[in-house]
């Protein structure tokens, strides 16, 4: 499994299980202490828990973080086992923009303190996990976050109360019997239980969490690894050089993250085994459903792979168990293995949650995550939010919500939702005149890290004001909540809106796809919709879509069908500031959505319009008329003349001017048709021939 | 180009039916009508009396002719439409024919009517489908289409047909070109009605005065109506490119009556022009002037022939009322609202039509040239900055700030900060003015000029509440920054910086200094930047009043010179200027006047208002920079346009009228074309011919946009002006123009990515996207519509783009029944 950013858990899995076994022993009855009240309780001081704590602290909210270990991020003290984080720590981008640089910093948490960036903690591109532990400790300390260490929450129940924000309180009981009453509960406990598959002989299998990481222990051995995620490959990588061979067995084929654009799939840094397999160096990959398997141990203590089916048919001693090679003598796994290692990922630990919380598992894809809404609120109980790795069901296999570089933004989004829900603080926004719309969007798509990392999940929203003279800009809103935008943000969306999302080409990513095909990049603006690499896509809606529309949107569409859509053509440098390639087409799109002219004009042009037309373009209205016109220099004026751009409106187009007359001879306008006045072209035969 | 076309699909719905028909037929027929292969004997047995047939004789084993056969195959269907059959005849050894020839490589195609050989064609003349169709029809329509090589030939035909028939004369570069085919197809339909004349000689074309001979040309000679043989036939040049559809359309408009008289609501009127996508122009007439109007209308009609339909609308017999002043009604297309216009001469009518023609009408040989190019920059600021991009700006004069240096810089020194984005054109255009400010201030000011690129340091900008670009703030004395709200130009920013050298208000310590201040001695160097100096007078106990005044002062920071005097002996001043306390004194240094305004119970906003009003001049020179301030008054502008300074006589006349309060409802001002050259463009938009200057113009921007001009033949005297204003007021003067009230719409369309995505998605039937299928631009009422739609969807986008534009087949479909029923060859 990808350990780039797994959120913390409740200590070592073994201990957790023990706790789960006797929750009833520690009921509040045994507690003499009065319940401590908190508005916000955060379970777990891993990256997600600390991130939420940071936002609560900045907003001066009443909160506490509960952490069973003595320091934050204890998951990282043991995992990943081989200590190399596969989340990149890119310290140089050639850019000064701190927001932009977060796009390539996958380990830092969000804070106002530039000292709390991960690059100050490690110089390695793929950093060591202990640096993460050190970083998280510093993060909590330097920001003075309220973390209750060495506090194990053993049981959580629901207490109905009409006075409570959500109609109930969450009652937390710790290992000392101390009871906490929380209005809102954040679960940031990560995935802490190793995923175990039950099959005959599974008791012979060693787990990733406990297997030796010393290559010496594997010298000259035949090793079978179950799983094909990053932890499996990481384990293989470690021992490739000393084993006879490593076979890797999994249900489905390996998914390469550079083909799927999903960081949880196999990263190139771990794929040494693919190399040795394809270069005929005895290592290999095999596909089979693990639940059909059985492992039998022979007298020499070696392991044989067989089928569960065979075991059921016979009921014989180990030596007599039929093996596939009995019938099929070239069966791939006919060799005996010295070790079988299980690297099958992790599951969420549901055991401390009382049934009344209705925190159920079984998301769309996997049972390993608790079920949550796109707002990260549990479907079972209002006021319970799942953060961090455990919240990945929202964008599993799609975006980065299961990793630090993704969930640091979703935590902020959840915080903003709650600020409005409980404190009347509307979703932060900036209001600008419509003339700034193109620039606002260009600015965000070029620097925003949340949009970039959480593509397809968090999107910027532009809410238009009446008559589209101004707009409000909301950053990084969970786009699946679009229909409920007004109620969850406290902002009005009555006059149409834009949604700014980042997307890969629709058919570009996916397992087994050749992402290096010839002509994969699009350069022409008119082909922008066929862009394959991550690029900004802007949706325009005349009205806020309804929940129905969001739910029953066309397949493959992240949002319902918009009124209009714009793709900013993909850019090799992810720098979308080219005047003709990026800005101009965007402006035309916005103009056509808003039915107005968003060009900028020099003061002289505005002056001309002011005296020759009854209406002025928005740029002149917002700037020039308020004595803030752009005067320009003589040099620019000359360029303007040289460019041949006329001071005309589109409607006036190539009209040379109508109804012009010599002064002093006003004619009765109603009868100009009467021939007679001089200058009427009876003699112009040119067009006539 | 390709997508642009798609996107505009809605604008040519007139042709919707035709286009979809074509697509359908191309798809369904190409499979059916394949080239029959026959033996010679079989072939000759199929020839029918009166029918034409094209046959290609070849040896079955010959190989090098596949390209020709492909083209021939394509020609099967179009020729069939004209009743001409096509066949490939295989010359087998057993039955030889004289047409089979002897050598394999010298195979020819033969055209028969009945079983008589009309023409033989070497295959290289029939190089593509266009050439095949053109040659075959050319051979068959020998009489209908006269081929000429000299100007005399043309003259002879011209003379022969005067009073009898009209002529369609065309020039093509070569026989067998697509244009030639289009003409032949038109001749097939109209050959009985008109005499077609064709030439490939440039000299002939030149002889009738055409200069641009690169392209094919088609003229309609109106000879039928010419009875006097010495008179020339009128000629109308077809403006569109030579396609079958365009020629058909053009001839249709030539056939339509030149001028129609109507007496019904223009909204209801429809003629062939509208069906052809051409607009209608109604000229409003009335009984009294009917004859004259009719002549004018005919004149207009001739000039607009082929471009628009012209109708004479009789106002008197009209039941519905049309706007009183309107003299022209313009109907752009069926179903569109009729626009009523006031146009002053024929040229305006013509240019209005020409500029408002259907975009699709302006189609020439090369579509790319005529299409508005969406990729072309039409933003002047973007364009000019882009053009200047290679120049190195002397940015070193301006301190560049970063996240690290920002705070210390603005805290430790008085600085102006420009917040900009390196990629934003408006920011970068202003940067040039900002550099000019830096050059002017070099070594002269303690103010530090700095800049910070928000594209690099976005967090700093957000922290400073900068959400737009560009923004200029002044950080001084560690106080709250002052937002600069003036013009983004060198002059105004300099003024702001200069005026900010002194505090606002300045605290005056003594009566003597107050007098120096009032006389202009104190801040001599700053006087040119502030049209007024303000001195607030308060007794020391008036704390609230002083507070209001100080607040107003900080509000006007950088705009005006403001001072305050509040010592015990303030009464000396209040007595001297005969005003009770609290008060303010307004000094207009230019005029040497001091005005006293009592300030009892005047709040901050009112004080600001008094001072701003006072800084307006009574008869200002308006410039690009000053106009907005005067526009705020919301009064009609009475502008004296002048080339240079205005004479004393004019100034006196206007000032006198101002003094006598005759101009209170106007903003009198003057414009110096030397200082404000754009004034010339403005005059050009008011008048055809630049009138003699100086010239007095009244521009009523705020109600109706009427523009009136003071008669050029009258002397600008007080009396004349007054009389003119009186007449204006009484509505006796006519305006010279009305400023257009159009909204500012998008200058050009955007790419229709949604349409493209959906068109692409619908190619894959496996992917269901029922909600998002876009209606393809097809009009109802056609039987084959369903197949048609699905056919379009199955087409890959690339070919769809092309097919959408393959309009030339429209005629064939439209005239098909006619062809088959009436005119079989």
From TrEMBL, chain A:
Probable flavoprotein which may function in endoplasmic reticulum associated degradation (ERAD). May bind non-native proteins in the endoplasmic reticulum and target them to the ubiquitination machinery for subsequent degradation. Its cofactor is FAD. InterPro entries: Auxin_biosynth/cation_transpt (IPR050982), FAD/NAD-bd_sf (IPR036188). GO terms for cellular component: endoplasmic reticulum lumen. Keywords: Endoplasmic reticulum, FAD, Flavoprotein, Glycoprotein, Oxidoreductase, Signal. Residues 1-26 form the signal peptide. It comes from Erinaceus europaeus (Western European hedgehog). The keyword Flavoprotein applies. This is FAD-dependent oxidoreductase domain-containing protein 2. PANTHER family: FAD-DEPENDENT OXIDOREDUCTASE DOMAIN-CONTAINING PROTEIN 2, FLAVIN-BINDING MONOOXYGENASE-LIKE PROTEIN (AFU_ORTHOLOGUE AFUA_4G09220). Interacts with SEL1L. May interact with OS9 and DNAJC10. Interacts with TXNDC16. It comes from the Eukaryota. SUPFAM superfamilies: FAD/NAD(P)-binding domain. GO terms for molecular function: flavin adenine dinucleotide binding; monooxygenase activity. Belongs to the FOXRED2 family. Residues 641-689 are annotated as: Disordered.
UniProtKB/TrEMBL annotation, chain B:
The chain crosses the membrane at residues 12-32. SUPFAM superfamilies: Thioredoxin-like. Residues 34-137 form the TXNDC16 N-terminal domain. Residues 399-497 form the Thioredoxin domain. Residues 138-257 form the TXNDC16 second thioredoxin-like domain. Keywords: Membrane, Transmembrane, Transmembrane helix. Residues 764-796 are annotated as: Disordered. The keyword Membrane applies. InterPro entries: Thioredoxin-like_sf, Thioredoxin_domain, TXNDC16, TXNDC16_2nd, TXNDC16_3rd, TXNDC16_N. Residues 768-777, 783-796 have a biased composition (Basic and acidic residues). This is Thioredoxin domain-containing protein 16 isoform X1. It comes from Erinaceus europaeus.
């Amino acid at each position: 499994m990808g350990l780039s950013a797994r959120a913390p858990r409740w200590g070592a899995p073994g201990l957790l299980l023990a706790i789960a076994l006797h929750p009833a022993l520690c009921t509040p009855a045994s507690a003499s202490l009065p319940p401590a009240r908190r508005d916000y309780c955060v379970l777990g001081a891993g990256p997600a828990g600390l991130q939420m704590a940071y936002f609560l602290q900045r907003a001066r909210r009443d909160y506490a973080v509960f952490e069973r270990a003595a320091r934050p991020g204890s998951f990282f003290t043991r995992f990943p086992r081989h200590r190399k984080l596969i989340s990149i720590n890119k310290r140089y981008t050639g850019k000064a923009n701190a927001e932009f640089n977060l796009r390539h910093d996958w380990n830092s948490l969000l804070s106002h303190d530039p000292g709390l960036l991960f690059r100050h903690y490690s110089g390695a591109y793929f950093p060591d996990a202990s640096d993460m532990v050190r970083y998280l400790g510093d993060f909590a300390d330097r920001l003075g976050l309220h973390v209750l260490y060495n506090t194990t929450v053993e049981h959580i129940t629901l207490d109905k109360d009409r006075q409570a924000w959500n109609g109930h309180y969450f009652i937390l009981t710790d290992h000392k019997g101390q009871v906490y009453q929380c209005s809102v509960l954040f679960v940031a406990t990560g995935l802490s239980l190793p995923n175990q598959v039950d099959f005959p002989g599974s008791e012979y299998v060693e787990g990733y969490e406990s297997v030796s990481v010393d290559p010496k222990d594997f010298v000259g051995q035949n090793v079978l690894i179950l799983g094909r995620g990053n932890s499996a490959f990481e384990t293989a990588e470690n021992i490739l050089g000393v084993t006879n061979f490593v076979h890797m067995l999994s249900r489905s084929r390996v998914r390469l993250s550079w083909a799927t654009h999903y960081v949880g799939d196999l990263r190139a840094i771990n794929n040494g085994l693919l190399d040795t397999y394809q270069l005929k160096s005895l290592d290999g990959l095999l596909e089979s459903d693990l639940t059909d398997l059985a492992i039998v141990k022979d007298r020499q203590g070696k392991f044989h792979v067989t089928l569960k089916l065979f075991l059921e048919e016979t009921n014989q001693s180990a030596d007599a168990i039929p093996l596939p090679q009995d019938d099929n003598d070239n069966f791939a796994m006919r060799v005996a293995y010295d070790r079988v290692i299980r690297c099958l990922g992790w599951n969420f630990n549901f055991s401390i949650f009382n049934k009344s919380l209705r925190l159920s598992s079984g998301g769309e894809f996997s049972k390993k995550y608790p079920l949550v809404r796109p707002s990260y609120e549990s479907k079972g109980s209002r006021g319970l939010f799942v953060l961090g790795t455990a919240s990945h069901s929202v964008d599993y296999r799609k975006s980065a919500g299961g990793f630090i570089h993704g969930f640091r933004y979703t935590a902020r989004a959840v915080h903003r939702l709650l600020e409005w829900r409980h404190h009347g603080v509307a979703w932060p926004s900036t209001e600008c005149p419509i003339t700034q719309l193109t620039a606002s969007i260009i600015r965000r798509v070029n620097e925003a890290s949340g949009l970039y990392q959480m593509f397809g999940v968090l999107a910027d929203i532009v809410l238009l004001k009446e008559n589209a003279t101004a707009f409000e800009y909301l950053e990084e809103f969970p786009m699946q909540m679009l229909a409920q935008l007004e109620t969850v943000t406290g902002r009005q969306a009555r006059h149409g809106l834009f949604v700014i999302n980042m997307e890969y080409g629709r058919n570009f990513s996916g397992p087994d796809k050749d992402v290096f095909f010839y002509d994969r990049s699009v350069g022409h603006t008119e082909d922008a919709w066929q862009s394959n690499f991550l690029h900004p896509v802007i949706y325009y809606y005349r009205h806020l879509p309804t929940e129905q529309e969001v739910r029953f949107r066309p397949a493959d569409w992240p949002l319902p069908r918009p009124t209009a859509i714009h793709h900013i053509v993909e850019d090799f440098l992810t720098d979308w500031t080219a005047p003709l390639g990026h800005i101009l087409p965007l402006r035309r799109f916005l103009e056509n959505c808003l039915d107005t002219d968003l060009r900028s004009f020099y003061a002289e042009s505005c002056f001309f319009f002011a005296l020759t037309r009854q209406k002025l373009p928005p740029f002149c209205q917002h700037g020039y008329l308020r004595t803030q016109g752009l005067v320009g220099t003589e040099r620019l004026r000359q360029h303007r003349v040289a460019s041949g751009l006329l001071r005309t409106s589109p409607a006036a187009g190539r009209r040379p001017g109508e109804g012009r007359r010599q002064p002093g001879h006003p004619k009765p306008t109603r009868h100009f048709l009467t021939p007679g006045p001089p200058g009427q072209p009876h003699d112009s035969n040119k067009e006539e021939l | 180009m390709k997508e642009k076309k798609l996107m505009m699909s809605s604008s040519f719905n007139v042709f919707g039916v035709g286009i979809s028909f074509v697509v359908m037929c191309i798809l369904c027929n190409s499979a059916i009508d394949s080239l029959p292969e026959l033996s010679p004997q079989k072939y000759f047995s199929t020839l029918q009396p009166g029918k034409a047939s094209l046959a290609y004789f070849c040896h079955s084993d010959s190989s090098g002719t596949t390209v020709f056969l492909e083209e021939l195959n394509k020609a099967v269907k179009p020729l069939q439409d004209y009743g001409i059959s096509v066949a490939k005849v295989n010359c087998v050894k057993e039955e030889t024919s004289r047409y089979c020839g002897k050598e394999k490589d010298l195979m020819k195609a033969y055209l028969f009517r009945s079983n008589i050989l009309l023409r033989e064609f070497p295959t290289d003349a029939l190089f593509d489908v266009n050439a095949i169709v053109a040659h075959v029809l050319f051979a068959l329509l020998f009489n209908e289409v006269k081929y000429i090589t000299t100007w005399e030939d043309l003259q002879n035909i011209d003379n022969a047909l005067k009073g009898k028939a009209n002529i369609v004369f065309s020039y093509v570069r070569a026989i067998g070109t697509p244009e030639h085919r289009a003409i032949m197809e038109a001749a097939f339909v109209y050959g009985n009605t008109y005499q077609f004349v064709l030439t490939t000689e440039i000299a002939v074309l030149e002889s009738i005065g055409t200069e641009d001979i690169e392209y094919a040309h088609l003229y309609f000679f109106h000879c039928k109506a010419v009875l006097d043989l010495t008179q020339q036939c009128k000629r109308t040049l077809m403006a569109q490119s030579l396609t079958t559809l365009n020629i058909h359309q053009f001839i249709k408009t030539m056939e339509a009556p030149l001028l129609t008289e109507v007496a019904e609501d223009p909204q209801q009127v429809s003629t062939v022009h509208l069906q052809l996508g051409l607009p209608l122009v109604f000229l409003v007439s009335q009984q009294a002037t009917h004859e004259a109007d009719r002549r004018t209308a005919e004149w207009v009609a001739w000039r607009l022939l082929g471009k628009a339909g012209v109708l004479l609308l009789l106002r008197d017999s009209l039941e519905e009322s049309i706007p009183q002043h309107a003299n022209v009604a313009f109907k752009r297309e069926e179903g569109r609202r009729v626009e009523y216009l006031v146009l002053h001469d024929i040229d305006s009518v013509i240019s209005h039509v020409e500029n408002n023609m259907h975009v699709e009408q302006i189609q020439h040989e090369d579509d790319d040239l005529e299409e508005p190019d969406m990729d072309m920059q039409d933003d002047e600021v973007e364009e000019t900055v882009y053009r200047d991009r290679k120049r190195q700006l002397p940015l070193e004069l301006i301190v560049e700030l970063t996240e690290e240096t920002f705070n210390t810089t603005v805290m430790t020194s008085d600085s102006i900060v420009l917040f900009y984005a390196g990629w934003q054109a408006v920011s970068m255009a202003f940067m040039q003015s900002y550099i000019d400010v830096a050059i002017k201030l070099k070594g002269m000011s303690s103010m530090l000029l700095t800049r910070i690129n928000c594209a690099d340091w976005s967090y700093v900008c957000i922290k400073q509440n900068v959400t737009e670009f560009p923004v200029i703030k002044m950080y001084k004395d560690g106080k709250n920054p002052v937002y600069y709200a003036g013009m983004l130009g060198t002059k105004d920013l300099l003024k702001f910086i200069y005026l900010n050298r002194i505090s606002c208000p300045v605290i005056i310590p003594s009566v003597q200094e107050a007098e120096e201040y009032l006389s202009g001695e104190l801040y001599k160097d700053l006087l040119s930047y502030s049209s007024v100096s303000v001195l607030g007078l308060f007794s020391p106990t008036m704390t609230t009043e002083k507070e209001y005044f100080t607040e107003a002062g900080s509000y006007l920071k950088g705009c005006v010179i403001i001072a305050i005097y509040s010592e015990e002996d303030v009464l000396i001043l209040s007595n001297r200027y005969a005003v009770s306390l609290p008060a303010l004194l307004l000094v207009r240094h230019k005029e040497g006047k001091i005005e006293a305004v009592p300030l009892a119970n005047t709040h901050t906003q009112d004080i600001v208002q008094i001072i701003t009003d006072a800084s307006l001049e009574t008869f200002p020179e308006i410039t690009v920079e000053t106009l907005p301030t005067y526009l705020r008054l919301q009064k009609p502008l009475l502008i004296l346009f002048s080339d240079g300074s205005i004479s004393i006589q004019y100034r006196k006349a206007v000032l006198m009228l101002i003094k006598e309060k005759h101009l209170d409802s106007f903003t009198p001002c003057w414009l110096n074309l030397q200082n404000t050259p754009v004034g010339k463009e403005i005059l050009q938009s008011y008048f055809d011919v630049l009138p003699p200057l100086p010239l007095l113009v009244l521009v009523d921007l705020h109600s109706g946009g009427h523009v009136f001009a003071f008669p050029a033949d009258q002397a600008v005297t007080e009396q004349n002006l007054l009389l003119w204003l009186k007449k204006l007021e009484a509505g006796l003067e006519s305006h010279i123009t009305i400023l257009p009230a159009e909204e500012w719409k998008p200058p050009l369309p955007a790419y229709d990515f949604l349409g493209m995505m959906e068109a692409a998605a619908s190619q894959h039937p496996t992917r269901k996207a029922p909600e998002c299928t876009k209606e393809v631009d097809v009009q109802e009422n056609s039987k084959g519509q369903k197949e048609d739609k699905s056919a379009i969807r199955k087409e890959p986008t690339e070919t769809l783009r092309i097919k959408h534009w393959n309009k030339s087949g429209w005629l064939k479909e439209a005239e098909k029944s006619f062809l088959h029923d009436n005119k079989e060859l």
